[in-house]
Amino acid sequence: MMLKCFVVALAIGCTFARHLEKETVQWTGGNVDWPCSSTECLYKNGGKYINKNMISTRAVIYNNEAILAFPRFKKGVPLTLGIIPLDCKTGEPSVSPYPSWSLQEEGNCGALQSVVDLFLDPQNVLWVLDTGIIDALEETPVRKCPPKVVAINVRTGKMVKAVDLSSLTGASSRLQYVVADYSADGRVFVYVTDAAARAILVYDVTSDKGYRVVLPKAVTMGCTKRDVLYPSLVRRLDGSTVLLFSYLCSDQLFSIRTEYLQTGAAAGKIHDIGTKPGKLIFLGTDNGSAVFFRFEGHTEIYRWDASTPFCPENCVKVYDGQECTFPSEVIPDYKKGRMRVLESNFPDFIRGTVGCGIDHSLVVM
Fold it and tell me: Which residues form the signal peptide (predicted)?
């Protein structure tokens, strides 16, 4: 069936002063909302706050706020999980620690060390992937704590669960993405991609047990290295879920029904669903069957309805992108009933050519 899609015109260029509910929210670096001026001075003078080293790579939206991941890729990142208002009336929004300052402390394994991914589930539980490694892009990365997934109830801001992943990982593991899912009988599962190990970590949160699903060698065919392992959870009309996954370097897109992941019976259940039209960066879903992606090195975003065959005819361009920035994620804004794009000039961040700070934006598509 051919995909039919209505492309919604993007409304941008509104200033903060003119509009309460903005189509575009922009900020530079990490304009931190400090508890007091003495704390700010302490962090700055001690080298624990370097504005240009703060980059937000992942986000979720809850009501009128965006919760943001600030991985500690470089030194000087005082908070690794923050929150900003989407209805700031004037100027740039300030980033507050989420849910508290105490959860941002480096070296405290009960706190967050370096958050690299976020997933907000249908029960309003935020799942936070913390690698435990800081200064990942410095000369000497430092492991402060074991990797973990933390669950936070966004209604209350309370941490409700912490899952230690050290028994499922090794020294060479490279954890990148987390997805949360519910089984037909109500159990909670999290899936974490380990790109270096060619594996998906499956953790049954309800039963407090986990295991690794090692993927077949075919998923890395054509790859010279195991780079980025993208997962996308899509929902079928009957309520069941399927996990799509692919390496950036791979030519193919794969899928597995999550019931097989949940029962540990994944062997022989992985399907090759098609050849990708290029090197694709998967950006997110609408929490339904729509999958968003872009081509490596390009800013245009495409939408594919996973209930249709995976082919170029069913991939529709829905966003052109902005000059000098690249999309890193597409996320639902349920209050607006629209999708938002998180964009930044992260290539400058990688090259070390950032001026005052990273330019971020959350744009309504």
Answer: 1-17
| C-beta atoms surrounding 329 within 10 Å | 23
Verify cis geometry, omega within 30 degrees of 0, for the bond prior to 85: no
Number of other CB atoms surrounding residue 205 within 10 Å: 20
Contact status, residue 114 vs residue 133, Cβ threshold 8 Å: yes
Longest dimension (CA), the chain: 62
- Alpha carbon distance 55, 252 (integer Å): 30
Q: Please name every residue paired with 342 in a beta bridge, in sequence order, or none if there are none.
A: 329, 362
**Which among 144, 160, 163 has a CA at the least distance from the CA of 105?**
144
In the sheet where 24-28 sits, what is the strand order?
Answer: 24-28, 359-364, 338-344, 326-333
**Cα 283 from chain centroid (whole Å):** 8
pLDDT in tens, 62-113: 999 999 999 999 999 999 999 999 988 778 999 999 999 999 999 999 999 9
Q: Report whether 232 contacts 285 (CB < 8 A).
A: yes
Pair 117, 58: CB distance under 8 Å = yes
How far apart, in whole angstroms, are the C-alpha atoms of residue 330 and residue 60?
Answer: 9
- CA–CA gap between residue 364 and residue 333 (Å, rounded): 8
pLDDT surpassing 80 at residue 21: no
The pLDDT, as a whole number, for residue 6 is 31
Give the tens place of pLDDT for each residue, 228-253: 999 999 999 888 999 999 999 999 99
| DSSP structural state of residue 37 | H
Give residue-wise pLDDT tens across range 318-353. Answer: 999 888 899 999 999 999 999 999 999 999 999 989
Q: Could you tell me if 231 and 243 are in contact, meaning their C-beta atoms sit under 8 angstroms apart?
A: yes
**Residue 285 to residue 292: CA distance in whole angstroms:** 6
Tokens of 341: 């794009």
Count how many residues are written for the chain.
365
